[in-house]
Amino acid sequence: MKVTSSGPQTIQMAQGEPVTLDCTYTSSQADIGELDIEWSVVSPDTTKKDQMIISYTAGRRYTHGDPDLMKGVDFTATDPSQGDASLSIASLTASHAGTYQCKVKKAPGVDSRKISLIVMVRPSVPKCWVDGGEAVGEPASLRCRSDQGTAPLLYSWRRESGGPIPPDAFQNSLTGEFLISNHSVSHSGVYSCEVSNAVGKESCRLNLQAVKPPNRAGVITGTVVGCLLLIMIILIIIWLLIFKCNWNRHEKEFSNDIREDAPAPESRPNSRISSFRSGVAYSQVGQTQNEHPPSTATSYSTAKYDSRFFVIIFNMKAYKTVAGVNGPLVILDQVKFPRYAEIVHLTLPDGTKRSGQVLEVTGSKAVVQVFEGTSGIDAKKTTCEFTGDILRTPVSEDMLGRVFNGSGKPIDRGPAVLAEDYLDIMGQPINPQCRIYPEEMIQTGISAIDGMNSIARGQKIPIFSAAGLPHNEIAAQICRQAGLVKKSKDVMDYSEENFAIVFAAMGVNMETARFFKSDFEENGSMDNVCLFLNLANDPTIERIITPRLALTSAEFLAYQCEKHVSAAREEVPGRRGFPGYMYTDLATIYERAGRVEGRNGSITQIPILTMPNDDITHPIPDLTGYITEGQIYVDRQLHNRQASHRNKLTIYPPINVLPSLSRLMKSAIGEGMTRKDHSDVSNQLYACYAIGKDVQAMKAVVGEEALTSDDLLYLEFLQKFEKNFISQGAYENRTVFETLDIGWQLLRIFPKEMLKRIPQSTLAEFYPRDSKH
């Protein structure tokens, strides 16, 4: 096999013209395989594959690549198998330029040929303009520029009216500049610029005028005089205000009757001037002392004038210096004294108000992160105001029972919250020495949590879930049923005045948001719930402040209203391109949970994390496990398993107790807090369930007939444990004591001798079926 074409290997053609790339070949008698012809564009990057455009195999033609680009591209010959594999392109475009390779294969022979195709593009219509001014006596620069065309592009200026080109003019044929060093009236007229290359040419025209130069000296003099007059007027007004203030105080001082042996009345400010956060500045003018003249008959005490003050009220500085918009960020230039974390108000051309926060300050430039997104922001017409304050949120006990969006604005058609205070959403760091170790238990009414992974008051413990699992129902059930177990009493404390829920959902759809809201309202728990909803169609950047708004509200309820707050958070993790400060950022959120010495309230965090593809090694759940004090694991296999063959119900809640963990459980259970057998029952249930899992795996290998009698007991326990202990109704609220009783019913499947993790004294009290517990 040999390619016999001898045409040029480099072809230059104009855009729009047809072209034929030669590729003729001959084969020998030794070439007995199937004919295969391929035309491809050679990639300039050796690490990437060549792009095939057309091929001929088994007597059929095949086209590849972009259909729009392949229009008019075909083999020249009707039958390429007859020795002519040439390629024709009907109408060239700039995208057709490149190195083409013709490869002909017929086993065992193979040969190829490369042809470089250069597409010449004619110049586009140039743009003509005057760079600078057209004032007489100053340089006048005429510019010409064509945006398209194959290099080299040559520019040529000529004068169409008004006479020949000035002799002192200079023109650059490569850049298109035409410079008149000393412009005059005789140089005015119509000029044209022509741009050309090897393919074609285009031209543009402009009318050069001669403008009388402005009187700069007069303008400068007038500006200086006007500024001086303005400064003088301001100084005179300030002096008159001070003089009038002093005169009024002097008249008031001596208008009173002076009695013998009585001190003269001192002048006092008419009103206390309150300090504004921004916009009011105080200046102390001075303090003088004035004495009454002495008298021969009566001595008068000294009367002192109080310090004089004058007030200057000014507005916040508004800027229209938006230099750029990049994603959720707005870059501002020429800003005076911006501060990190300062809040900025943005007003769009249509009057829409948005807020943002300064992320970075470099000189007079500031990078602002807009919480509501940057869509619709016009760089020239958007007004930005720097407030001089950090991001604060209004808090009040009236927030309970209300629904807010991700920015903290009410969306339940109710009135605005009457704020008792405005708190920084970043919160205040808790002194580790002032923290109280969590000891009291929070009952959720779910046996898999209360019995096996008890949650302590002030603990932070996440729920690891995934798409399609009932984590929404579990979160709603916890919010409905959560309460405190009274210390030293085997009863629940359901008093509503000491327990509240702050629920923040981030990245959820409208259906999920409607589910939570309706569920809280239907079961009557909405009065103790403060709900923050960031929907999937809300700005993504808003999810940065949503958890901090929820935690700030929880801190107010816990430490100032002295409630026990459970802060449940449901969020959607992002992709794996996470920043390096993610661990610190997560810690600033999770570490705001806990109890503080001297305060009765507490904050318990239960974040719900949806793991992509059930991957527990994803950065978000992985780092969350390092920061928090355990995890509750929602298992997909348990969710898909049938709890009963008769009613075909799935196991709810599908919580797998084996990978689940509560590191603070030991301090929240036991005698005086729940029941003295709680820890032993939990340990024994855990051990029996783990052995039952092993037996179940062994049964799949050796069969049920090979199992021992003890193995069959563990297998029976496994099935009843998942059916009766883990599985329960979505509205079934079990007390921790009912959960322990169910645990004892399951442990009675085994003889006492097999319950090795429970002390004999505890077995003697609770194991008998007639036990009162």
From TrEMBL:
Keywords: ATP-binding, Cytoplasmic vesicle, Hydrogen ion transport, Ion transport, Membrane, Nucleotide-binding, Synapse, Transmembrane, Transmembrane helix, Transport. Belongs to the ATPase alpha/beta chains family. Pfam families: ATP-synt_ab (PF00006), ATP-synt_ab_N (PF02874), ATP-synt_VA_C (PF22919), Ig_3 (PF13927), V-set (PF07686). One of its GO terms (biological process) is vacuolar acidification. The keyword Isomerase does not apply. The chain crosses the membrane at residues 217-242. V-ATPase is a heteromultimeric enzyme made up of two complexes: the ATP-hydrolytic V1 complex and the proton translocation V0 complex. The V1 complex consists of three catalytic AB heterodimers that form a heterohexamer, three peripheral stalks each consisting of EG heterodimers, one central rotor including subunits D and F, and the regulatory subunits C and H. The proton translocation complex V0 consists of the proton transport subunit a, a ring of proteolipid subunits c9c'', rotary subunit d, subunits e and f, and the accessory subunits ATP6AP1/Ac45 and ATP6AP2/PRR. GO terms for cellular component: apical plasma membrane; clathrin-coated vesicle membrane; melanosome; proton-transporting V-type ATPase, V1 domain; synaptic vesicle membrane. It comes from the Eukaryota. Residues 1-116, 123-209 form the Ig-like domain. This is V-type proton ATPase subunit B, brain isoform. GO terms for molecular function: ATP binding; proton-transporting ATPase activity, rotational mechanism. It comes from Labeo rohita (Indian major carp). Signal peptide: none annotated. Gene3D superfamilies: 3.40.50.12240, Immunoglobulins (2.60.40.10). It is a peripheral membrane protein. It is found in: Apical cell membrane; Cytoplasmic vesicle, Clathrin-coated vesicle membrane; Cytoplasmic vesicle, Secretory vesicle, Synaptic vesicle membrane; Melanosome. Non-catalytic subunit of the V1 complex of vacuolar(H+)-ATPase (V-ATPase), a multisubunit enzyme composed of a peripheral complex (V1) that hydrolyzes ATP and a membrane integral complex (V0) that translocates protons. V-ATPase is responsible for acidifying and maintaining the pH of intracellular compartments and in some cell types, is targeted to the plasma membrane, where it is responsible for acidifying the extracellular environment. SMART domains: IG, IGc2, IGv. HAMAP family: ATP_synth_B_arch.
